[in-house]
Each structure stands twice: as structure tokens, then as C-alpha cells.
Amino acid sequence: MANVVVVRAEGHAGAADGSVLAPLLDEGRRTWIDLSIGPGDSAPEAVRGALAGIGDPDSPIAVVGVGAVADAAITECSSDQRVVAVVVLAADVTTDAIELMSSWKEVPVFVVADAADRASLTSALDLYQGSTHPDSDIEFVAELDVADEQFGSRTDSLASAVQSAVRWLDRVLDAVVERRDVMCTTDDGWEIHGSLTVPSHNGAPAPAAVLLHSGRSDRAVFSRLERLLARRGVASLSIDWRGRGRSQNRGTYFELSEDERVQGWRDARAAMSILAEHPGIDEERVAMVGVVHGAEHAVAASVDDPRVKMLALLTGYMPRDGREEAHLLGGSVDVMYVTCSGHGPVTNAMHDLVRRSQPGRATLRVYPGGAIGYQLFDLDERLEEALAVWVADGLAGEFASDVLGELASDAVGDQASGLENA
Questions:
Q1: How far is CA 183 from each of CA 22, 289, 299, rounded to the nearest angstrom?
Q2: Dihedral over Cα of 239, 242, 246, 250: its sign
Q3: CA 205 to centroid of chain Cα atoms
Q4: What is the SS3 assignment for 166?
Q5: CB 31 within 8 A of CB 11
Q6: Which of 80, 114, 366, 398 has the fewest CB atoms within 10 Å distance of its CB?
Q7: DSSP calls for 76-142
Q8: 138 strand-pairing partners
């Protein structure tokens, strides 16, 4: 069950008798924690304590910040990976909190703003506009006051805004029904740790994506993509492959020999066993998303595995042998290639693969410059969303090659070029 932490100053919205926040306490669907901050209390310490008191490491959390303590709510909850949503009510938040929320790309924010308070309205707009998450939203209320003596009897517009916040929270929290750490063991003895996210699937097993980071990062880089996929009904398993993150039982990545490093495809293949064991996941409909060396592992792991239906390969990939090339061209997988014009040999190889692919089975996006890996997500803020749509539509049986072009070109205009479909 999801947890919602309401952080408010003592004497402000949250009293059980008539508070407009009372509708949030909806029939036991959530565990609600009402955190009242007194004049002598430390808001940051109180928020940290409340989050630490939620013992379930896999339960998603939403945080509602009301008024002056919203800053502390945003700052302290940002370090907790369980937090999946933030609501801000009637708060004049600081520049630091706005910048933090802007950089926290994987978590959406819902802002209820006081249209009559210029300072509050300005910060509310900055907070909302700074968020790049597609689920972020804002609602305006005239003469918003969160003091208890007025908050429970405000206008219909306020009640409507709060109900909108409730519906928004329900949608965001319902998108993920399970998120937990998992572990599997490869056939050569590596203990591979990962994060499994399973969306609400209405009784039918959900398709899944295995996410493979680059050599200089770990699974945490995919936290936003995990939620974008869940929003579209796709489960995800993001792993730390050998030598990275928590998967270091046989050494760290840069201590390994080149021969040992290239065996990372075994980690991706072993991860498939986790999907196969989960009753809520359809192991026969899987995509693999790989970045740089992760792209190499994705292709190698998917060769001769008919469960893998889609591959998304971001910069740095070239076929290592004829077997991989035949797999990409053979028509058994749909492939998305994303790269930059500055990577000459790699970009040329991707162009060639798309041209030789069977009709409707491959797409290529080439950006200007020399961005590598996750830098592409900064270059085009809608690319992750486009990737999630492409995966979801493809695993549903609808090849969505045009989505990449439509979303990415909208985002970067004339700066992006070279979209090809085969």
C-alpha cells in the first residue's frame, strides 16, 4: 500500500474535522501520515523521521507539502528513492527547492497555487514549469488560505483543486503497484542486483523492459524511465551489471579484464529469469534498452532469445560479429537506434543497419554534436518519453517508429536531423 506524508505547519490544514484535505483520506487505499510541524520543531528532522518510520523499502511514497514547510518537504524527500510524487499547496517555495525539483526529473509535481498572492504564484509557476516530467500539473485557486479556521470552508474552486490533487495522486500512485530490489545469479557466478517495477495490469500480465546502463553509471540513471514505462503499462527491470552499483561480488568494473567486461550480456540474460518467475509479467514480450556498453550487452543477450521483441540502442553500438548483425537484420526484433552526428563510424554503421533492415523494423534518430549516452536525454527532454511510448506500443503489437520522430523533432526543432525508418 502506498504511503502519503502530509507535511504542514501546526494549526494549518489537516485537522480531521472539516479540513479540505480530509477527502484525501480515502477509504484505506493509502496509509496517511499527518506531520504537524510546531513552532519549535525542526521541519527537516520531522520529515526525515517520518520517512524513516515507513519501514517498507518497496512501498511508494507521495509527499504533500503545505505552506511554509513545503520547502523542507521537497528538500528532505528528494533523497528517498521511494518517493514517486510531490504535491505542493499554497507555498512560496525557495529558488533552491525549485532547482531541486527541476533536476529531479523522475518525480512529477502537482502544484495548487494562490492566484491572488503574487509571490506565491510566481514560485508556483516556476516550480511547475521547471519540472520536465509529463505528469506534472498545476491548478490555480483564488484567495487560497491554508489556516484551519478558513481552509475547511473556502470556495468551491479550492475544493475542486484539492479533488484534482487527489485524482492526480491516485493516478500516479496506481501506476506502480510494486517496486522492489531483486537479485539473480549468472551462470559464471556474478550476483546481479536490480530494481523491479511492476505497473497496475488489471489481471493481465504486463510486458517488460530490461534496462542496461553504461559503463560509468548504474541502474539509478533509469529511475525516470522506469516510471514512464509503468505509466504506460510496462514493467521494468533495471540492473547493475557486473562491477557496477551493488553487483560487485567479484570485483569492481574498472578492475575487470576486457574479456570479463564483455561478458555483461550474461547479466542481462540472467535477469530474464526474474521476469519469468513473476506472475504479473509476460516474459514473452520483452524489450531491452541499452546505453553504450549496455547496448552491446542488450544485443548479445537477445540473440537467439525469441522473448526479446524490441531493442533500443543509445550511442556507441556497432555489431561485434556477423551473428549480431544477422540478428538485427533478420526481422525478429524491432530496433531503435539513437546517436549523434559526431560519432562518425558508429553513426554510419547505424545508418547502414537501418537501410538494410526489413521494412518497418528499425528507426534511427541522429542528433547534432557528440552527446553520449544519457546526455541525449538532456539534449532532448522528450526523448525518454518517446522511448517509453515506442516500447509500450511495440510490445502491444503496434510498431511505433514514427513516435520517435514526432516527439523528438517537436522538442528540438531544426537541431535534430537524420530520422530514418526502415
A1: 40, 19, 22
A2: positive
A3: 20
A4: helix
A5: no
A6: 398
A7: HHTT-TTEEEEEEES----HHHHHHHHH-TTS-EEEEEETT-HHHHHHHHHHHHH---TT-EEEEET
A8: 111
Q: In this structure, are residues 347 and 400 in contact, taking their beta carbons and an 8 Å threshold? A: no
Do 350 and 363 contact (CB within 8 A), yes or no? no
Angle between helices 293-302 and 322-329 (to 10 degrees): 80
What's the number of CA atoms in the CB half-sphere (13 Å) around residue 76? 21
pLDDT, tens digit (0-9, with 9 covering 90-100), for 106-136: 789 999 988 888 888 899 999 999 998 878 9
Q: Which domains does the chain have, with CATH numbers?
A: 3-174 (3.40.50.1820), 179-421 (3.40.50.1820)
C-alpha cell at 94: 525557495
- The CA distance from 105 to 144, in Å, is 28
* 388: helix, strand or coil: helix
96's grid cell: 533552491
Quick: pLDDT tens for 373-382.
889 998 898 8
Residue with cell 506565491: 120
Distance in angstroms (rounded) separating the CA atoms of residues 101 and 176: 21
Question: Which three three-digit cell numbers place residue 114?
Answer: 494562490
